[in-house]
Write a structure and sequence with these properties.
By secondary structure, this protein is an alpha/beta fold. The chain is built from ten helices and eleven strands. It folds into two domains: 4-190, inorganic pyrophosphatase (n-terminal core) (Alpha-Beta Complex), CATH 3.90.1640; 194-315, Diaminopimelate Epimerase, Chain A, domain 1, CATH 3.10.310.30. 36% of the residues lie in helices and 17% in strands. Residues 232-308 form the DHHA1 domain.
Length: 317
């Protein structure tokens, strides 16, 4: 793994820098990408710094993507943030640049890139980016801090998830000291539309619960269309089963427009990232993602989650 100093030297050497993040973005993906881009633009006004990726869903309040052309990649430095493996990178032109750097906090199962900095102890990629900015004395403006704070708030579940540590609060305090409105950011993270609230209720209504404490819910394209919601907006329902006290781990399956399924794994204790890796995904021990080709694979995935949850429950009786 490389050092912050090595990465910064590489950044200084390029006139064009293009930042990518993962598909189906969450606040940390958008926040880490935007925070780093804004800091680099402030530090190097003559450089072209661009954000690449697909739709932001309901996270455009954090940042919107730039119009990145194919020719922009010629001789460019590409940086990915918050993206554990290459299939999840949003906009597959990430490998068209001259040099690739990975900045992340997920388990480094896919050590791609010409350089990489991965802090698996950090609860958010936005915290890693904040550490980089502070270590290299890059600009930490209010606009930079807003994006990074949103990313940290999102990936820590508003400082609730177990990966949150004392350093997280130190970084949050530094970001808050720039004058950002932590109240507005928290509200934007938490607020949902009326139809998203209906989707959360539907997810609860469709939920299946196994005696082991594992749960699943499947949201179909017809469900989203009925509520006039896009695929990205369905992420609002991912945490819904976790509100039930006796549920230890859960899957939320969201059907994509092509008929396949995006699989969300969440847990309060059982380790689930290895399960996700078995289905083309990965992530953290308690929060991961994967894909399922059809309902047969959906059923297989849930059966695997039941077994892991059952074993965990037996070990912790």
């Amino acid at each position: 793994m490389n050092t912050f100093d090595e990465i910064y030297e590489k950044i200084k050497a390029y006139d064009t820098i293009i930042l990518h993040r993962h598909q189906s973005p969450d606040p940390d993906a958008i926040g880490s990408q935007a925070g780093l881009a804004r800091s680099l633009r402030a530090a190097f006004p003559s450089k072209k710094v661009l954000c690449a990726g697909g739709p932001e869903g309901d996270l455009a309040w954090i940042n919107t993507m730039d119009d990145v052309k194919d020719e922009d990649y010629q001789g460019a430095l590409v940086i990915t943030t918050d993206t554990a493996n290459t299939p999840r990178i949003s906009d597959q032109r990430y490998d068209q640049g001259d040099f690739l750097i990975k900045i992340d906090h997920h388990p480094d199962r896919d050590p791609y890139g010409d350089m990489r900095y991965v802090d698996e102890d950090a609860p958010a990629a936005s915290q890693v980016v904040a550490d980089f900015i502070l270590a290299e004395k890059l600009p930490l403006t209010k606009e930079v801090a807003e994006a990074l704070y949103a990313g940290i708030l999102g990936d820590t579940g508003r400082f609730m998830y177990p990966e949150t540590n004392a350093h997280t609060f130190k970084i949050a305090a530094i970001l808050a000291d720039t004058g950002i409105s932590i109240t507005d950011i928290a509200r934007n993270i938490a607020d949902v539309t009326f139809n998203q609230a209906k989707l959360q209720a539907l997810a609860m209504d469709k939920m299946e619960v196994d005696p082991s404490g594992a749960a699943m819910t499947v949201l179909m394209q017809a469900d989203l269309q009925k509520l006039n919601l896009g695929f990205e907006e369905a992420s609002v329902a991912v945490g819904t089963p976790g509100r039930i006290k006796d549920i230890q781990a859960w899957n939320v399956f969201v059907q994509k427009p092509d008929g396949t399924y995006r699989v969300h794994y969440r847990s309060k204790g059982p380790v689930i990232n290895q399960l996700a890796e078995n289905h083309g995904g990965g992530g953290h021990a308690l929060a991961s993602g994967a894909n399922a080709a059809n309902m047969d694979e959906v059923k297989q995935i849930f059966a695997e989650l039941v077994e892991v949850t059952k074993k965990y429950s037996e070990e912790h009786e």
